[in-house]
Design brief:
It is built from 15 helices and 14 strands. The strands form two sheets. An eight-stranded mixed beta sheet has the order 3-4-2-1-5-6-7-8. Strands 11-10-9-12-13-14 form a six-stranded parallel beta sheet, with helices on both faces. By secondary structure, the protein is of the alpha/beta class.
C-alpha cells in the first residue's frame, strides 16, 4: 500500500489556517482507514519537537528560521525528509507553490526514485494585492514551474482547474478537483455555558443575537474589507459589523481602515474585536449573526466560506466565479463597489425570516452533500488506490 506524505502546511494538529485544517482533517481520516500517512511539521530551532504520532498520522519535524524565507526553507527540508523515507510508488503531496524552483533538485531526486509528486496549488496566490510586485512575479513563475513538474494537480475548485488548463496548458488528464470541507454545527451542538458567554460578550458592545453582521478572516486588502467597511458606514444600513480578525495596530492597512471608521459619522457601527481563538465561543457568536460577509476575491474553495456554510450562516459574498461555484443559490452576491454592497445588504434586510432560513438551509445542505471531510477523504483514498475521484455535479452546475 502506497504511503502519502503531506508537505507544505505548518503541521498538525491544526491551530489555525486553511492548509493546516485540511492536512489535519484529511490525514487523520485516511490514517483511520489504514493508509500510511505522514505530515511534515514546521518548527523553529528553539522549539522542541512534538509527538511522533497524532491520531495514527506520523509527524515529521523540520526546522526553519522564523524569517521571510521560512516557507521555502521548510518545504525544501520537508521534501528531503520525504525523499529519504519514501519508497517507489509512494506519493509526496505539496500544498501551495511558494517553494517554487527551489524544489527542483528534490523533485528530480523523487522522480528518479519512483516517488510520485502531487501538487495542490491552493488558489492563485500571485493575484493577492498584499504582495509586492517582485513577490507576485516570483509566485507566478513558481506556479507555472510546479504545475508542470507534478504527476497530478489537485485543484480545490473547478474554476481553478479551468484556469490552470487554460493559462498554463496543464494536461486535463493529470488534474482532479477535490475541494475543502467543513463540519456542520448548529445551536444544539453548543452548551448553555457557551451561549451564556456569547451573550456576555455581545453585551459588552450593547448587542444581542440578530443585531449584527460578521466578517471572519485575515486583515488583508484582497478580502475587500475596506469596501465592506465603507458600505457599513452608510446611513441606510442599521445593523453593526463585528470584525473577527487578528490585526497589528502598526499595519498600514489596519490604520487606514481604522481611520475610515474613526472619522466617519457612525464610528460605533464597525467593531474591531481582534481574533477570537475560543472556537466554541466564535461558533456561538456566528450562530447569532444576522449574516456573514465574505469578500474574499482570490482563490478557489475558500475555507472560511465553507465553514460559514456549515454553520448555516446567511451569506453575502463578493460576486466571483469561485464564490459562485461554492455558494451556488445559498446566499446573495454583491459587486466590487460600495454601492453594490450597500444595495445587497439592504436587500438582505428586506428578506423575511423564512427567506433567510431558506438560504441557511441551502448552505448547510451543500456542505452535507458535498463540502464535507468524509467525502473529501473518500476521494483521496480512491486516488491513492489508483481510482479516479468520484464527482457530484453540484459545484460545477452552480459554477
Amino acid at each position: 500500500m502506497r504511503s502519502l506524505f503531506i508537505v507544505g502546511s505548518q503541521g498538525i494538529p491544526a491551530d489555525y489556517g486553511g492548509l493546516e485544517t485540511f492536512a489535519d482533517e484529511t490525514a487523520t481520516r485516511l490514517a483511520s482507514r489504514g493508509l500510511p500517512v505522514y505530515v511534515t511539521c514546521e518548527k523553529t530551532p528553539d522549539e522542541p519537537a512534538g509527538p511522533a504520532e497524532y491520531k495514527g498520522v506520523s509527524l515529521l519535524y523540520v526546522e526553519a528560521p522564523d524569517n521571510n524565507l521560512r516557507t521555502i526553507i521548510a518545504d525544501v527540508k520537508a521534501l528531503w525528509r520525504c525523499y529519504r523515507l519514501a519508497d517507489p510508488g509512494d506519493v509526496v503531496y505539496l500544498l501551495g507553490y511558494g517553494v517554487g524552483p527551489f524544489a527542483w533538485p528534490m523533485l528530480k531526486a523523487l522522480k528518479a526514485k519512483g516517488v510520485k509528486f502531487w501538487l495542490n496549488p491552493d488558489g492563485l496566490e500571485w493575484k493577492r494585492p498584499r504582495w509586492p510586485a517582485w513577490a507576485r512575479f516570483y509566485l507566478r513563475i513558481s506556479e507555472r514551474f510546479l504545475l508542470h513538474q507534478a504527476d497530478r494537480v489537485i485543484c480545490d475548485a473547478a474554476a481553478i482547474q479551468a484556469h490552470h488548463q487554460r493559462r498554463w496548458g496543464v494536461d486535463p488528464s493529470a488534474t482532479e478537483v477535490i475541494e475543502y470541507g467543513a463540519p456542520v454545527v448548529d445551536r444544539d451542538d453548543l452548551s448553555d455555558a457557551v451561549l451564556a458567554r456569547r451573550d456576555e460578550y455581545l453585551a459588552e458592545y450593547d448587542l444581542a443575537p440578530g443585531d449584527y453582521y460578521t466578517y471572519v478572516g485575515r486583515f488583508v486588502p484582497d478580502n475587500n474589507l475596506e469596501l465592506m467597511v465603507r458600505g457599513m458606514l452608510d446611513d441606510r444600513i442599521e445593523r453593526r459589523l463585528l470584525i473577527f480578525a487578528k490585526h497589528d495596530t502598526d499595519d498600514p492597512f489596519y490604520q487606514k481602515i481604522h481611520t475610515i471608521v474613526r472619522t466617519s459619522a457612525h464610528p460605533d457601527k464597525v467593531i474591531f474585536t481582534g481574533g477570537v481563538y475560543d472556537q466554541p465561543l466564535l461558533q456561538a457568536l456566528r450562530l447569532g449573526e444576522h449574516a456573514y460577509f465574505h469578500g474574499h476575491e482570490v482563490g478557489g474553495t475558500n475555507p472560511a466560506l465553507v465553514e460559514a456554510m456549515g454553520l448555516g450562516s446567511f451569506i453575502l459574498a463578493l460576486n466571483t466565479v469561485y464564490n459562485r461555484e461554492v455558494l451556488g443559490d445559498a446566499g446573495l452576491f454583491f459587486g466590487k463597489s460600495v454601492e453594490s454592497f450597500v444595495q445587497t445588504v439592504m436587500k438582505a434586510e428586506r428578506l423575511s425570516d423564512a427567506e433567510v432560513q431558506q438560504h441557511r438551509e441551502r448552505a448547510v445542505g451543500r456542505v452535507r452533500r458535498h463540502y464535507n471531510w468524509e467525502r473529501i477523504a473518500d476521494d483521496y483514498e480512491r486516488l491513492l488506490l489508483g481510482a479516479p475521484a468520484e464527482r457530484t455535479t453540484e459545484p460545477e452546475a452552480a459554477w
